[in-house]
């Protein structure tokens, strides 16, 4: 088949989609990656575990990334590194930029596999001075693993998601000694992190604590924190801040390209095929939502590859009936945000959601007000929750789907 | 340190300008073009490190300035000169126009007198608009608008490249700029000034104090007393993602009060939308901090005016500090017998008025001090200015750009090389940001910090990160 598919982003999901499309006989698969190497975030996660799902063994991030790239390469994916997609136009036209300047590419289908990033200090309204030495985990990892550089020696870590644990490991690797972990919630967010923390010496764990202000004069000199129970403030002596977690999909292209976004997930709104409001444009991996593992994102890439190979045989599906899914607190977001009919077997997989606070109760699905499915749910924020996609096979189109929680 | 070549030291200058903010930059340019041998001394490791580093970037008309004030004259002349030269210098200008909007009956009642004042100030193209007209122009605006008027010639410009271009033009016409050089003391011996700085010393016929937030303390150092005192006034801002700039076409000005122009919503030439500033009196001249309550308040205010902002991500936050004084007027005066000119209290309109201030001061210099030079007949135009406006050509569109480094702001390696290796190269991360916009986008350095650290390693006085073993 001579129709071109353009995949934007060479992380696990983009590489998986590209590789799958090639395997299924799609000839022209172009993968565009703005970094000098493909591989995505794992390129700078210098620690295991990666690769169980994909290679049946445990690898560290950089090795895992390399193997995904080699596989795509071998199958003939046209990987164009150091090339950025600057904007999306209608009808599958992309504006690109590389060392030669601006150019355009027209594709029959486009996959956004642009991943997630962490929420910045500014986006969280963390006050105080504007100084050097305030970085995200991602920036720290790239400094340490890609450049062998470190921006500080004694930082605090804000946040206690799984990625904050990676921040800790990265620090250890570079001889950086974090002095405290600050978590706003009453408990550590990541289970693994909570288990591992007692073994990390010299780091004080401050839960139910918020950062009031970062102090600095050119560089960080301290951080004022407040205990949310007692209201007491104290100044921690630190020379840097790692602002970790609070992921948000990298949805710039979708947002600026006028695709419909889902403010709750931060990603483009999609149906169960990962299809956006532009029927030529699909999303895979963490660009869909915050945040999943590499393995999960890779699997979504595979699925998008499979369903695109089929979708390419037809004209873009513009006019199919659909039903949107409504959620409300404490459900933070749901992916997909709508179900398109008919429900075919190639799709992204089960419906995914997250809660915004610890919950205990019954998760239910209602269609036109009628309960069609429920189960007990006991969960915490940032934990994966799924609902089988097949329960939606009863839809005819136009129904209102509501997913809720009774506590 | 940053200018190892101390060739300026021990030399004599016609004029020394103290302070590398937008005002000092415009002064250096004017005096150089008029033919004076001029030196600019800046205490910080880089230029634009004071009041000029954070403002709203509006090119004002002066419609609401105190009528017949020096400030008013300088804004009018300054913007006129800016409009004359910006194309030749390659400086961006976006002709947004502004709407002064009222959200209550009280505000609505104040509109006619503001309109009258605008007319008295020579801004005669202002025009009352009905509620419907405003809504038609700005459909994303919240329904609560009661009315307003338009000021068609309020525009937005580039707050950093503009003063940088003034300095570069001064440089390529023979001026000298030195950084890391704080003026520690100075004395006038009846014939000339002797200035001592942290890096060297020099003599000068005339000294101009353009020290912004330190104007009063510098005046104290130079002439033993100060005719004004600085009352720092902070303004905090929230910057929204580029998607927000599609929501608003004009600058949205509130009905001003006695003390402040109020909270503005405006696009920036970088393609963002910003809300701010606050007006907070403070003692410190060095406190540029933001606080979460104020940022939340700004965000809430912005969403109240433009509800769609609720779903738009926040890109950045920052604060600026105005060098206000105890009076609502610029504090410009010449002491002829001491060959000294103070240019103080340029509090909230200096970006617009700087070129006008420079004309005003040059006139004073000729008239009061009686100096004269032969103007440069055909001034050179600086090349290779930063190209960081979203409304002009960018290097990512051109060949041999070295590839994009900062993905959010589309800053290429060529932009970064230019900033690090051109004339007056960046010496701090902040300076690099102001010349390129690198790390100033939505990810705030998540993607490009490492690359930037490697590229800038040999160039910055204080590197972003260091190698370890
Ligand atoms: C700091 C951090 C640490 C993490 N640590 C782990 C971990 O230890 N284990 C784990 O399982 N998961 C981790 N994750 C989650 C991570 O997102 C997934 O592992 C995985 O990388 C998701 O794959 P992806 O393909 O969706 O996105 P990514 O791996 O993020 O890949 C996206 C790719 O798209 C490219 N791109 C984006 N926009 C454009 C554009 N406009 N033009 C061209 N290219 C573009 C990017 O350069 C990038 O290479 C981490 C995430 C972060 C942010
Ligand atoms: C929140 C805010 C919003 C604003 N919005 C606008 C706007 O929209 N439009 C507009 O036109 N204007 C605006 N302004 C005003 C404008 O930014 C200021 O008027 C202008 O920046 C003042 O410049 P300056 O050169 O006088 O001072 P500065 O920029 O402070 O420059 C003074 C310089 O002198 C140096 N210095 C001090 N002491 C010494 C010494 N002893 N030796 C050597 N160097 C010394 C300092 O380091 C500094 O770099 C705004 C200002 C603020 C704060």
How far is it from the N-terminal to the C-terminal residue of chain B, by CA? 27 Å
Q: What general outline of chain B do the C-alpha atoms trace?
A: globular
Q: By helix and strand content of chain A, what is the structural category?
A: alpha/beta
**What is the second-level CATH architecture of the largest domain in chain A?**
3-Layer(bba) Sandwich
Number of strands of chain B: 23
Radius of gyration of chain B: 22 Å
Give the averaged pLDDT of chain A, no decimals.
95
Number of helices of chain B: 11
CATH fold naming of the largest domain in chain A = FAD/NAD(P)-binding domain
The overall pLDDT of chain B, averaged over residues, is 96
Query: What is the CATH class designation of the largest domain in chain A?
Result: Alpha Beta
Largest two-chain interface: A-B, 52 and 53 residues
Secondary structural class of chain B: alpha+beta
Total strand count of chain A, please?
28
How many H/I helices of chain A?
A: 8
Largest sheet of chain A: 5 strands, parallel
Helix proportion of chain A: 10-25%
Q: How much beta of chain B, percentage-wise?
A: 15-25%
Protein name (chain B): FAD-dependent oxidoreductase
Domain FAD dependent oxidoreductase (chain B): 14-361
GO molecular function (chain B): oxidoreductase activity
Pfam family, one (chain B): Fer2_BFD
Task: Please tag this protein with its features.
heterodimer, A: 407 residues, alpha/beta, FAD/NAD(P)-binding domain, 3 domains, 5-stranded parallel β-sheet, B: 469 residues, alpha+beta, 8-stranded mixed β-sheet, 11 helices, 23 strands, binds flavin-adenine dinucleotide
